Amino acid sequence: MLARFITKHFGGIPTKFSDLKWLIRVNPESPNSTPQAFEYRKVSPGNQPEYQPPKTEKLFKNRYYEKDTRRQYPQTVVFSPNDVKLIGKGDSFEPPVINKRYKYKASAPHLDPTGDAGNPEFSIRAVE
């Protein structure tokens, strides 16, 4: 008699803990308390293309910010009236270069890493 009551009202005798989730939840249609990865990751690591370093570059020029896709924030581009006129005419117009956040210049040119200076293994660089 008890088994028939449980089957009728609860769908059967619970055999595992996941069958008792309805006891914990107020809304049985609500999602789990632990979010899935696709719910909070904007760009999942598995979907990013693998970084292909240029074959001619040295290994020490493998900079992290060039591969980092999470921090490539949208940047504002301002067009001058002359640029807008060129776009409207259909002339060849080169869009402005954005993402110049990391522009390096040599702070000690006498320590040139190309081998022209006295110390080819050392170079100090500064960010503009």
From TrEMBL:
Family matches, as InterPro entries: NADH_Ub_cplx-1_21kDa (IPR016813)
Annotated region described as Disordered, given as residue ranges: 30-54, 107-128
Protein origin, superkingdom: Eukaryota
Protein's name according to its UniProt entry: Uncharacterized protein
Species the sequence originates in: Boothiomyces macroporosus
